[in-house]
Design brief:
Number of strands: 14
Strand order of the largest sheet: 3-9-8-7-6-4-5
Structural class: alpha/beta
Largest sheet: 7 strands, mixed
Shape: globular
Strand content: 5-15%
Length: 428
């Protein structure tokens, strides 16, 4: 770390890993210590370290060709790119979504979803007309009407990325945002539920209705193109809301003719027990866009053909995704289906939540599938707990002010949960 710090800032580093020796649910550090990994590279490892499916994939000629010749997919997609799109992305597309736009990371997935919303709303206002000369000239000076004063509405404690548009919609920690110019976009208060849920139904219903009312008030004050929301606010403290809340939020979008964007960067690809967390909401119609990254190993967003820009090159960059990562995403989908990993997530998650809920040293145990969190008494005690857990051989992460978040891989089983629970008792 001292050597690396000569060239890169290492102040955020927990430990240096030896990925060659890591296996399954266990990560090994540079000193040879093996730890049960319940943080999984910030929730981004789906099927374990050095999974044989990935190692075998690396031997395939098509994978080697993709490694040796990285395509600029917008101009020269390889002849097997459509196979990857179908086998990786469209095979698990959220219900009712027919298109996918691939990019490099979660932040740029959200950025391009935001751009899509702005272009769609502007095009609707323009009707069948082409861009006016005034629009084309004014946008070059960052002025209206070519650069309209439209907004994306997001929520307090939300996290959508660290680029300019995604950061403007983010409000999980001030450290992410301070010193950075931002768009003046509105933020509604995300409901702060109390746990256990069955003991606080009246309070929780009230704070959800207050949030929805605030959304409607903000829509009257701002020119909003879309609302973006996480199924579970992850970085901001693992904050949940009920399926009813999200159904009502979609209804507000439809009533006001704005787009509904679901940010599934953390929750997608099986972490909550369904491939997409929003499947649990029973929405009456599909969302307008769903963004993804992390556990899918690839990134992008789903949309419908009606949201395609009217002209080419408007959603575009050099790479527009990565064939190597798309092949890995297809292998992940295969593993999830062949090993019935969603059932494993539900079973292990239920087991883990049951045992955590019975621990009176933990506050506000909450979760969906194996996407689980709890609070400790203070930020200092939470931080000490994370360090103590690593010293005892289990790697876990934090979020929010005093929350411990568990982000196990889809292959995490009951005997791993027992190791986690026993180690927690020692640390607490």
């Amino acid at each position: 770390m001292t050597q690396l710090d000569n060239y890169q800032d290492t102040r955020s580093v927990f430990f240096v890993a030896d990925f060659e020796k890591s296996k399954g649910n266990y990560i090994v550090d540079a000193d040879g210590n093996a730890m049960l990994d319940v943080f999984a590279q910030i929730a981004s490892i789906p099927v374990g370290y050095n999974n044989p499916a990935f190692l075998n994939l690396a031997k395939e000629p098509a994978f080697q060709t993709a490694l040796a010749n990285r395509a600029a997919l917008g101009v020269n997609p390889n002849k097997d790119w459509v196979d990857s799109v179908e086998k990786a992305f469209m095979r698990v597309a959220p219900a009712g979504m027919s298109n996918v736009f691939t990019v490099m990371c979660g932040s740029c997935a959200n950025e391009n979803a935001f751009k899509t919303a702005f272009m769609y709303k502007a095009a609707k206002r323009r009707g069948d007309k082409d861009f006016s000369l005034n629009e084309l000239q004014s946008c070059m000076h960052n002025q209206a009407p070519g650069s309209p004063d439209m907004a994306i509405l997001s929520f307090s404690r939300g996290f959508h990325g660290r680029l300019f548009g995604s950061l403007a919609a983010t409000s999980s920690k001030a450290l992410h945002k301070v010193d950075i110019p931002a768009f003046n976009w509105p933020k509604a208060t995300f409901p702060q539920l109390k746990y256990p849920l069955h003991m606080h139904q009246e309070h929780n219903s009230q704070v959800e209705q207050q949030s929805l009312h605030e959304v409607e008030q903000l829509l009257n004050k701002h020119d909003v193109a879309a609302i973006v929301v996480e199924p579970i606010q992850s970085e901001g403290g693992d904050n949940h809301a009920s399926p009813h809340f999200f159904r009502q939020l979609q209804a507000i979008c439809q009533k006001n003719d704005i787009l509904f964007i679901i940010d599934e960067v953390q929750t997608g690809a099986g972490a909550t027990g369904t491939f997409w967390a929003h499947e649990a909401w029973d929405l009456p119609s599909p969302p307008d866009m769903v963004t993804f990254s992390k556990k899918f190993q690839a990134a992008g967003f789903y949309l419908n053909r009606r949201l395609r820009p009217t002209k080419p090159y408007r959603l575009y960059n050099t790479w527009m995704g990565d064939p190597v990562r798309a092949m890995q995403a297809a292998a992940i989908v295969n593993e999830i289906e062949d090993k019935q990993l969603l059932n494993n997530v539900k079973s292990t998650g239920s087991y883990l939540q049951h045992h955590l809920s019975g621990n009176n040293k933990l506050d506000s145990v909450r979760g969906q599938g194996a996407f689980i969190a709890f609070d400790l008494e203070s930020p200092a005690k939470r931080d000490k707990f994370l360090i103590d857990m690593r010293q005892l051989g289990v790697n876990v992460g934090g979020c929010g002010d005093k929350t411990v978040r568990l982000r196990p891989m889809l292959t995490f089983q009951k005997h791993h949960a027992d190791i986690l629970l026993e180690t927690m008792e020692r640390a607490l």
